[in-house]
Amino acid sequence: MTAPQPTRLRRTSGRVRLTPLLRLLILTQLAFNIGFFAVLPFLSEHLGQTVGMAGWLVGFVLGLRTFSQQGLFVVGGALADRYGVRPVVLAGCVLRIAGFAWLGYAEAAWAVIGSVLLIGFAAALFSPAVESEVARQAVESEAAGGGSRTRVLALFTVAGQAGAFVGPLLGALLLELDFRAVCLAGAGIFGLVLAGHAWLLPQRIPGRTRTRMRGGLGPLLRNRRFLALCCAYGACLLAYNQLYLLLPTEVERAAGSQAPVAWLFALSSLLVVGAQLPVTRWAGVRLTLRRSMRLGLLLIAVGFTTVGLARPADWTGTPGLLPSAAFVTLLTLGQMLVTPVARAWVPELAEEGRIGLYTGALFSLSGLTVLACTSATGLLLDSGLPPTVPWLALAAVPAAAMVLVPRG
């Protein structure tokens, strides 16, 4: 394992200087998310209304997509360590193009399932390859005086969130034609990404060594500091997933419909795009990595507590939506602190030459945490307990995770 490095963020007031490769990878994240989120928000309705799938089968298909992506990140990361970033990214783009095109024409259940699995596995290839290289390049840039690594990773987060904001708008416009046009547009975007990377992405990236795939999981699973980071980051991901589970239920209770959910999602996206860099700059001057992550988890816990304490009042209308807006704001601010730090910490905790494996494992292990805890959340919702209980129970998760954040 590489020797631990100091975890206080580099204090710089100048702008981050990006290398051509970093600029390419950050723009890659923007393009990835535009293509992906042009399709994903409309998939559920297409499967239920157009294809005619039962509700349980739609849920099963969406769960398969998550598993084939998040659960297999560790595989994509290991492949990137073994074969390099370029072939893994290009292979992922080819599979994503094929998956979107297949989904656009799929009508039978087996064809839909096959295309969705292909779409998910494509991301399991290119995402950990790109993210691990961004993290490695950010560390090298920091060492060369190019600015704090967390600010580079914050730019990466902003690019992804901007893509997640623009993608659904593009998809909604194309949906006026039909869902097939949306899928083919997504495939076209990834075709452009494939062509750009085939031309611009280096065959060999200086400083990135290729490592055999065998023998890496044992040390990873014995790395207590890394596993603690995965648990703490998993608490953040679990909180984010409540935007899809707890939040819509609360919004519908307060407003009588789920229409305000779209505005709350837009609020979250705009906060990240507009405030991520200032927040990261502020944290970089004043906080260590550990304190930044713990503060982020604390804000998330306060967000859940706000709704939990307001819930017994049973407010409706605009006053009833204010706790939800506070929750989304605090959750987003917490994520702004936690996400760049988690990514920035991986290179310090990873074995030499296995940054892809560790980056993939961060998301896969955190995803398993989310899967287990989300099932428990569903049980709480169905238990008949007072409605404040799920919110306060989930507030306890990031609060407890503050203890797990590893020391430098």
Automatic annotation (TrEMBL):
Q: Keywords on this record?
A: Cell membrane, Membrane, Transmembrane, Transmembrane helix, Transport
Which Pfam families would you find in this protein's record? MFS_1 (PF07690)
Q: Where found, per UniProt? A: Cell membrane
Q: Which InterPro entries match?
A: MFS, MFS_dom, MFS_trans_sf, MFS_Transporters
According to Swiss-Prot or TrEMBL, what is its membrane topology?
Multi-pass membrane protein
Membrane-spanning regions, if any?
21-40, 46-64, 85-103, 109-131, 152-173, 179-202, 223-241, 261-283, 295-313, 325-346, 358-381, 387-405
Q: Primary place of residence?
A: membrane
Q: Which CDD domains match?
A: MFS_MdtH_MDR_like
Ranges for domain Major facilitator superfamily (MFS) profile:
21-408
Q: Which PANTHER family match?
A: MULTIDRUG RESISTANCE PROTEIN MDTH, RESISTANCE PROTEIN MDTM, PUTATIVE-RELATED-RELATED
Q: Which named protein is this? A: MFS transporter
Say which species the protein is native to.
Streptomyces cylindrosporus
